[in-house]
Structures are given as C-alpha cells and as structure tokens.
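Support request from a user on the community tier.

User writes: "When I paste my structure tokens into the form, the page sometimes reloads and wipes my input. The last time it worked, I copied everything first. Here is what I submitted, just in case something in the input itself triggers the reload:"
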C-alpha cells in the first residue's frame, strides 16, 4: 500500500490515480442512472402508480442524507482509499439484495436493496469527490471532476440501454397482455417471470464490484491528507469550526438543489415523456439522451475550465441555460418538449464539478466533514422528484416540472455569482 501523503501528487503522477477514480465514477454513474428505467420497471413488475414507483429514487437518494455523515466519520478512520473499497463492498451487498427481493416481488425489500446501494455510493462519493478535487490545484478541480463526469455519464448513457436490452425488451406488448388478463395465478406468474429478469444481471454486477474492490486494495492508489492539500489559508481562514465556513453551507443547499434538478432531467424524463402518451418502450431510453447531453456538456466544460472561463463563472452560465431550457420544455409539447428536458443535461453537466470544489475550498482539516455534508445534499434527488410527482397529480405535469426546477436554477445562479465567496477573505 502506498504511503500516506500530506499533499496531492503532482505532474504525471495524477494519471494512475485518475484512471482508478475514473473507474469508480463509471460505477457510480451506472448505478445512479439506472433509476430512471427502474421507475418504469417497478411500475410494471409491482403494478404501482407513479407516486409509489418514484420511491425508487427516494430510497436511493435518501441513503445519502442518512449515511453521509457516518461515511465522513468512517473516512476519518480508514482514509480515502480504504473507504472507497468499503463502499464497493457495501454496494455489492445492496445489488445482491435488490436482485433477490425483486425476484420474489417484495417491493419494500427491493427498496431496502436500493438504500444499501446508495449507502455504498455515499462512501464512494464522500471519498472520491474531495480526492479528485485536491489531487491537483483546487482552481482546476472542476476540470478534473469534469473528466470524471465523462466517465460517469458514459456509464449513465450505457446503463438504460443495457437495462432496456436485458429487462425491458418487448415491455409495451407485455404490459398490454398483462393488463388484459384477469387477476389470478396466471397473471401473477407472468409478472414473476418479468421481475426475475433483473436477478442475474444484478448478481453479476455484485460479483464484479467485489472483484474491483479487491483490485483497488492492492493498487498503488496514493492516500492524500486533505489538511495538507486544501489549506484554510487559501480562503483567509485561520481557525474555527465547520460553522465558520458560510460558503460551505450555501454550497450544501446549492448541491441539494442541483442534484434535484439533475435527477428531474435524468430520471423523471421517462415519466415526463409518458405524460404526452409516448410508448413505454420509447420513454425507457430517454435517460440515455439526457446522459448524452451531459457528456457533451462535460467535454465542453472540461475544454473551457479554467483556461477560458473560471469554474464559478461557468456555473452561473450553466444556471442561465437551465432556466432557458426549462422554459423551452414548458412552451413546447411531445418530443420537442422532451428534447428540451434532455438538453438540461448539457446545462447540468458542469454544475457538480464546479459546486463541489468551490464549497470545500479552504476547509483544511474539516474537508472530510464538509464533503460529507455536501454528500448529504444529494437527498435533493429524493425530494424534488417527489415534489414533482405529487404536484403533477393536481396541476398540469409540464407546469409542475417548471415550478419545481426554475427556482433551483436561480439559486444556483446566485451561488455561482456571489454565494461561493461569502465569508472568504482570500481566493
């Protein structure tokens, strides 16, 4: 195992660690962006309405809120490298649980499996995001996280397509057949067979996660101490606890809102498309379109930051694009409206890469705790889609969509322009 370092490595030594962290971001993206097609899947497999089907992202993202602080405490003891390995093992357990409970069609158990997967991801996120942020200069952190985001969104584009081939193939014909059947043993048998489609893919993924964890244990991934690489002096901060960093707390709210709008664009887009009466087989792939837009956004952002524009200025521009695309979705219909929702992926792409390093800048020895608080903000991915799915029960779904996300983008705009500087005396 590599010796502990007080500061980030330099030069060509970035490449090896970035490849390893890139693999972890790919894994995170694959699991995160399965939630969109999973919503459509559980609606059929468990015969659910929209509100209950949206418990999929709720259970998944709620785990970040519950477990991010414990994850920060764990990382203090294990270090970032071993914390990442532990996260992979926890995810493997969650994947096995999800596959097993879906196979026997026990929905609460399936949600518990998603919660455990989220628990493992909270460890991965809490460790890998500050790790890649302080692997090099904090001013170029958005560029490095942007590269990681490319890995994440490639996985996010692949996941719905793979799920569609392995699980959702022929879903419209199957749904029509099941709907026409009377309640009884034959109908239940068909639903059981459909639900069982996810079992072996999830078992295989669980095994793969264990293999990757073992590989990382014996890798040369270096340990980095945030206190040495992310000095408080960079923001003119000499002493004080975690509450003495207002830019962090404003960043927690910003990340909460950002993840909410990201999940709305990536996961809720399938339900949004169904609101126009589009076929389930078609809408189950819509998450991929959002991921492709995000991938393009990452490529553009990584090319521009920090050489052409600062990460905070790019964040503000992205927020403005978010507002414009959201309004475009509202004033159009059908596939054109869905295209505007998918385009939100481009606007969202560089938000996390900008918000996270801006919020943890200068936290020093508080970096792990600050990172955990930011990861708690991922619960926005649980709550904002819930707000949308409940609101659309009483008003037009397009109006519900725009009411939920436009105020979020306006706050993100504020953070990019002013909020990230609050309380700082330098930098």
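"...and here is what came back when it finally went through:"
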């Amino acid at each position: 195992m590599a010796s502990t370092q007080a500061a980030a490595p330099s030069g060509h030594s970035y490449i090896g660690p970035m490849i390893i962290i890139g693999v972890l971001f790919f894994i995170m993206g694959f699991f995160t962006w399965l939630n969109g097609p999973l919503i459509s899947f559980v609606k059929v497999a468990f015969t659910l309405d929209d509100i209950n089907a949206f418990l999929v992202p709720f259970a998944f993202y709620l785990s970040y809120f519950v477990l991010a602080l414990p994850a920060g405490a764990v990382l203090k003891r294990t270090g970032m490298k071993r914390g990442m390995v532990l996260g992979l093992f926890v995810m493997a357990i969650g994947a096995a649980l999800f596959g097993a409970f879906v196979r026997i069609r026990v929905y609460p158990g399936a949600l518990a499996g998603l919660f455990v997967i989220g628990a493992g991801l909270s460890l991965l996120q809490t460790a890998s995001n500050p790790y890649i942020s302080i692997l090099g200069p904090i001013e170029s952190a958005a560029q490095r996280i942007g590269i990681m985001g490319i890995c994440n969104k490639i996985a996010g584009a692949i996941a719905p397509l793979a799920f569609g081939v392995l699980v959702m193939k022929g879903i419209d014909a199957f749904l029509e057949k099941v709907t026409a059947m009377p309640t009884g043993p034959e109908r239940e048998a068909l639903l059981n067979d459909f639900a069982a489609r996810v079992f072996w893919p999830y078992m295989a993924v669980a095994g793969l996660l264990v293999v990757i964890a073992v590989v990382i244990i014996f890798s040369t991934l270096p340990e980095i101490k945030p206190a040495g690489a992310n000095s408080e002096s960079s923001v003119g901060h000499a002493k004080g606890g975690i509450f003495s960093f207002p830019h962090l707390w404003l960043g927690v709210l910003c990340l909460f809102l950002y993840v909410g709008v990201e999940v709305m664009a990536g996961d809720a887009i399938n339900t949004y498309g169904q609101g126009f009466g589009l076929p389930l087989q078609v809408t189950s792939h819509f998450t991929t379109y959002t991921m492709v837009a995000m991938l393009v956004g990452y490529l553009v952002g990584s090319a521009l930051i920090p050489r052409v524009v600062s990460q905070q200025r790019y964040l503000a521009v992205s927020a403005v694009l978010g507002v414009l695309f959201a309004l475009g979705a509202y004033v159009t219909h059908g596939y054109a409206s869905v295209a505007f929702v998918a385009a939100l992926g481009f606007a969202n792409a560089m938000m996390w890469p900008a918000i996270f390093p801006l919020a943890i800048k200068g936290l020093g020895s508080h970096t792990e705790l600050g990172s955990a608080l930011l990861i708690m903000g991922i619960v926005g991915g649980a709550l904002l889609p819930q707000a949308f799915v409940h609101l659309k029960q009483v008003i037009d779904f397009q109006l519900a969509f725009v009411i939920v996300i436009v105020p979020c983008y306006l706050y993100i705009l504020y953070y990019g322009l002013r909020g990230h500087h609050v309380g700082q005396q330098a930098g």
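Agent notes: The reload is a front-end session timeout and is unrelated to the input. Residues 1-7 have pLDDT under 50 and may be disordered. DSSP finds 20 helices and two strands in the chain. Escalated to web team.
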